[in-house]
Amino acid sequence: MTFAALLTKELRLRLRRERSVWVIIIYLVVMGLLGFGYLAQASAFNGNQNYLLSQVGAQLYNLLAVVQLFLIVFIAPAFTSTSINGEKERQTFDMLICSRLSSFSLLAGKLVAGLASTFLLIAASLPLFSLVFFFGGVSPSQVLNAVVVFVFTAIPIGAFGLFCSALVRRPTVSTAITYMGCVFWMLGPWVALLLLRGPSLLGLGSGTTPHLLGWNPIAALVSTLPGGNVVGTYPLGNHSYPLWIVYSVLSIVMTFVFFLLGMWFVKPNPVGRLKFVLDNAKWFSTPHIEDDDNPEDDDADDREDIVTV
Amino acid sequence: MIKVEHVQKRYRNVDALHDLSMVIPDGSIYGLIGPNGAGKTTLLRILAALIPPTQGEVWFDDEEISKAPSVIQRKVGYMPDFFGVYPDLTSIEYLDFYAGIHGVPRAKRTQVINDLLELVDLTSKREALVETLSRGMKQRLCLARALVHDPEVLLLDEPASGLDPRARVELRELLRTLQGMGKTIVISSHILLEMAEMCSDVAIIQGGKLVLAGNMDEVSQRLGKGRRLEIRVLERVEDAVQMLKESPEINNVEHENGDLISAEFSGDDRALHKVLAHLITQEIPVVSFAPRSGGGALEEVFMSITEGSLPS
Question: In chain B, what residues touch A90 (CB-CB under 8 Å)?
Fold first, then answer.
């Protein structure tokens, strides 16, 4: 019941903001303009080279899918990366703590509300994607797989943003950390591959996906695109699995990890509680809780001591 | 009854509270008085189970707060000194949200919210966005929020700060109504005269230490200043002044102009009755006899502990 109350409030607040409407409009306009620009260019090109319509459809789809992925990574962090510290900044956090809201319900409500906003963008863009079926070259299952990649990209980003907002006091800092984390997640493995294997296709095309790309959204999306077998399949034991499936499973695991960390950090004095747990685990000493003495923490009031949330 | 026993709160190397003990009786309006940084907010946050004391214990009846903070939080309605609101929610939605996260059953919520809005006189603003409410209205709405789960104890941190005189009077009346409903109210404030008029008990805190605590009349007497008497008579003012001066419990009789006499009274209610009876039997035409609680005395002690500077 407490979760439902929080979710209702979050959705009300988010959907009432004028910004929400503008985000959807701008999102669709950007996607639409890119698609239109590509079609205009392809039409001119087609006049000389007798292009197949299915090739136009596949390339248009690839373009839209990649743009969609980058837009999700660009927008999704904004929905959760200030969820917890925003409450503290707004001076409403104490009043949440004084209720029956558990830390699980608090984080779950914030995460679901943040993801609902992201999923709304993905759903709003689906009609644009359906345009490619006029041209052919893309199967419905490929679109479905790509949507799965979009969803399992948005979910861990949401959980990571939530974790950052519980960890860091200032909303601007948590937002910056979330974006940096997302950029590293997207591009880091590719840069590492480039450094390790040199520029010759990064070692791709051999049939198996490098482990570094096992949890990379770009590689996962490419694996769902027409001609996406360039990233190969991911080997696990004696079997190989399509990368987008491995990616989705890893995303679920990482979401749990970030969520649990967020639950730990959303309670006051996480450091003191960690010391408490470690003290009791190592030496079985008398339980005691110390105040957080982190010198970088400006306001002891909001970070101190154990509280049942 | 809330018992605070030898509570200490330490932030790094600073003692916010030091060996503080007090008893807050059931059904009282208990005022916490002290300058900025005295430890009032820290004490209220400990009572709200938001932070635990470094040492010492706090008991709500037979339950120790650190053993069952979530149980205590259900008994307590807390209104912080600085609080935020969700500006894009209406008053009803705001209260509905807090009722939800306090576990008020959905079927009861509408009735609870309507009753609370009526109590804080915001029924006409039920559909108004919170951001459009005045500060006084927001304060009352926040008080309604603190009451949404029908707590036994209300903890109010500077609830009257920033309010205009009318809003303060309304708040004071509201708190009296709540006391009449059996709530125990712990309130911190800098507005000493109002605290003196409103509170049945007070505690004066300075530098994290308890300076003085107890029933309002006891505190006034222990301060040696007593209550202020204001007496208005129709005629024979000089005779009345003389009679008052002869009374052993009365000091500093003042009669500046007209028919108003003021004096300091240091006795109990029985002695006060004797003074009034004496005036009446001597056929002094008393039209008003108003003993006032020791706001002046409180102010004096507050001024002395804050070294002559009243906070804004």
Answer: 84, 86
